[in-house]
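Let us practice reading a record.
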Amino acid sequence: MRLYCSYLRSDPISTKMARNNGGGEWINSTSMGDTGGNASNSTTVAPLVASTLANGLFLPLDTGSPSTGFIIWGSALVFIMVPGLALFYSGLSKYNNALSLMMLCMLTMAVVTIQFFLFGFSLAFSETGGPFIGDFRAGALNTLATHAFPHTAPQIPSVAFMLFQMQFATITAALIFGSVPERTRFVPGMLFIFLWTTVVYDFVAYWTWADHGWIRNFACLPVSQTADPCYNGAYDFAGGGPVHIASGFAGLAYCLVVGRRKLVHVEHHSLVNVMLGTGILWFGWFAFNGGSAGAANTRAAMAATVTTIAAATGAVSWVLYDYIFTRKVSALSFCSGVVAGLVGITPASGFVAPWCAIVIGFIVAVVCNSWVRFKKRLHFDDSFDAFSVHGCGGIVGKLDGTDIDGGWLEGNWIQIAYQLGSSAAIAAWSFVISFILLFVINKIPGLHLRVSDEDETIGGDYAEMGEVGYMLVISEPGAEASIQDQEAFGSINPVGSRLDGKRVSMGDILTNRERIRTLSTDSNRRNGNGNGTASARHNGGFDSTEPGLHMTTLPPNTIDYVRKADF
């Protein structure tokens, strides 16, 4: 078994398919490297009964195999990645936007699921489309059943393949909101997501993975609807282009259209949520990459193996890189490195040997970390680095891999052109189309993309949802507890009581928006007049010289403050 850094050899038909041994059966392509047709470790699955559609397309029927259960399990794991992403984003935000960011991710999943059912899957994976986009033949899953797609996922029924790919579409769209947290309105955001999934994700997924997609058939362009594809072009095992590059550059367009936040903060309200979300994402990524093999075979196992190696390498590399500058071992650095490593290995996971996963994880972590540092000079607010990690990391990871004639380490230089060309095409398409969509939506009355300045100060939780993720309370210095509270807490003054013993909650604050005053947005303090925000941050998170100010129940460096006179 020969292993290469730039690729693992398999059948030249597809990166995600089984091999036809000429005997009427489809077998698992688990040889992982032998070009002479030796299928070491290959296992024969149940024969697939022939089925012919009205248009004459031959489709094998799956009569039941372990791969079907494997893909359904993988779909569930990729599904779990969306709540993981929601936790990740909410932890990075200010406390008053935590719930709204989780809602954005989960609502995106629901909207894209409906879109993918109605026509998205048919556009993205049609077996009878042209080189640019599929058709509506499988709209509303009309033609999906037990038959398989012979050149894309021949070992599982088409409905299982659809379920798996649906989860890819949902998390791809949710990634975009990492570029524009704390200032995005829900309704126009969801309209954008529906349109973006249709005219960006479905298109680039078709180019990359469908039978007649032009990226998948670079070497034999143009590919007509009736011609036999050559399947010789740019290769992307699990979504470096359609998932990461597309979402990253869409996020870049989004943050440029809506502009910077009023308060560009570096504090994050819950790194515990970030760590938990990172763990869930890492867990789900085993199926994200492993399931892209399309069957329960050795390629799936290898893809999952290199995935976790790259994530671990990315985490260690990012932590060490930041340690050079800060002399601190940061949890946020660890989480950022994990995600960067996972992003970088995604397009290459089905092709590379395990030792190469270390190389990829290291390179992607260093490149993405360097870009995150450099982007601060460009003055655009890619808030949670959706573009910096997914866009840049996807491009770096995609500079690798084919399973036909080798990659650049083998001297097959044309493959670099295929990989670069596909990355550039996906990036340009996603950015330009996203920018146009956002610009048009923003001009429609009632569909402006950005919340008002007042709502941005209040936070998306209450402004967009009328709910809050945290019921904060305000404590006044020297406040006396009520008789009931004294009986309950003894001599300790309970948080949230004021001078007359009445409790004060976040709801009380939110009903009097005009009374809220955020010190960090006070222009006088920002300009150095009076006590500045720097003084506040270096004094336990609040300015002790400001009368009537005290901490709330959240970490003091992440909160807004309210004057005593407001109550």
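A brief commentary: The first helix runs from residue 66 to 92.
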